[in-house]
């Protein structure tokens, strides 16, 4: 990665983390708030050191539309991070992926027990929608943002549907069609909607929303392809989660179908195609381009 670009991305990520965490701190009940066990569990997973990539995509998509990160958008980023964290808590449960390490720390069910972990995920999802209903943007935009996010986290080509396809595909030979469907839904949908809703918050036109949607779909798929590759090539300390679980659980992954080298080429191609969708935004989309390139060049 170019040194200047690397520094720019580091700055964008750091600023995104700070903006998101300030909002999360204010929006999630304090650990001593009764019932304290659930709030401690919510905070344990939320503040476990995530990169906040989805909120960063929210902010930079908004900047592509508005020329700068709009005031008040941190609540949208925080809500999407709550939804992402809820999905991780549930994904790690014994009934699903049964993992005891996430973001380099013990998972919620390991620390607080399975019942509280389930409820912590539920609570983060509920709180996210409560926050989304109070966004500082026109009412029509707020409703559309909520609709888009609910769709992206749902069962038809959304996050929950992707998780179901992933579970049901374990133990069977993955096909190009199955791995594409799982990746676009389970991971890609939330990345795509982060980009789209950031644009909507900033006042994007329908044409701009369509371009951001195209960018988000391609960047989201590229992100998950790289995640698959890293699971096979990095260790648990580097990843902050248990390495090699995809292979051990016969998960449908891009490398399982195409191999590592082709997977890397596919991710690079997808990012190139995603950049084409950003051309009408000109220099305003430089931050979004930098983050997208980081998605496929990261090592963890």
Automatic annotation (TrEMBL):
<dbReference type="GO" id="GO:0016740">
    <property type="term" value="F:transferase activity"/>
</dbReference>
<dbReference type="InterPro" id="IPR053378">
    <property type="entry name" value="Prenyl_diphosphate_synthase"/>
</dbReference>
<protein>
    <submittedName>
        <fullName>Polyprenyl synthetase family protein</fullName>
        <ecNumber>2.5.1.-</ecNumber>
    </submittedName>
</protein>
<dbReference type="InterPro" id="IPR000092">
    <property type="entry name" value="Polyprenyl_synt"/>
</dbReference>
<keyword id="KW-0414">Isoprene biosynthesis</keyword>
<keyword id="KW-0460">Magnesium</keyword>
<dbReference type="InterPro" id="IPR033749">
    <property type="entry name" value="Polyprenyl_synt_CS"/>
</dbReference>
<comment type="similarity">
    <text>Belongs to the FPP/GGPP synthase family.</text>
</comment>
<dbReference type="Pfam" id="PF00348">
    <property type="entry name" value="polyprenyl_synt"/>
</dbReference>
<dbReference type="InterPro" id="IPR008949">
    <property type="entry name" value="Isoprenoid_synthase_dom_sf"/>
</dbReference>
<keyword id="KW-0479">Metal-binding</keyword>
<keyword id="KW-0808">Transferase</keyword>
């Amino acid at each position: 990665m170019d040194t200047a670009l690397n520094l720019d991305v580091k700055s964008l990520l750091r600023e995104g983390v700070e903006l998101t965490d300030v909002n999360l701190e204010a929006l999630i009940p304090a650990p001593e708030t009764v019932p304290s066990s659930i709030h401690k569990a919510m905070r344990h997973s939320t503040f476990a050191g995530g990169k906040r990539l989805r909120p960063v995509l929210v902010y930079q998509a908004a900047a592509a539309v508005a020329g700068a990160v709009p005031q008040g958008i941190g609540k949208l980023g925080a809500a999407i991070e709550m939804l992402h964290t809820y999905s991780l808590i549930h994904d790690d449960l014994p009934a699903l992926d049964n993992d005891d390490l996430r973001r380099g720390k013990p998972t919620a069910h390991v620390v607080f027990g399975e019942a509280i972990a389930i409820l912590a995920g539920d609570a983060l999802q509920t709180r996210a929608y409560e926050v989304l209903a109070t966004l500082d943007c026109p009412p029509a935009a707020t409703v559309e943002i909520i609709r888009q996010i609910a769709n992206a986290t749902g069962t038809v080509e959304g996050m929950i549907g992707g998780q179901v396809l992933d579970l049901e595909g374990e133990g069977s030979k993955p096909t190009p069609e199955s791995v594409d469907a799982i990746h676009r839904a389970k991971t890609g949908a939330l990345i795509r909607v982060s980009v789209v809703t950031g644009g909507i918050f900033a006042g994007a036109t329908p044409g701009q929303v369509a371009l951001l949607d195209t960018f988000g779909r391609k960047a989201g798929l590229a992100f998950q392809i790289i995640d698959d590759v890293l699971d096979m090539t990095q260790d648990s300390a580097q990843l902050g989660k248990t390495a090699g679980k995809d292979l051990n659980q016969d998960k449908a992954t891009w490398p399982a179908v195409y191999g590592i080298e082709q997977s890397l080429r596919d991710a690079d191609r997808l990012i190139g195609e995603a950049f084409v969708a950003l051309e009408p935004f000109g220099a305003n989309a430089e931050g979004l381009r930098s983050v997208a390139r980081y998605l496929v060049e990261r090592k963890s």
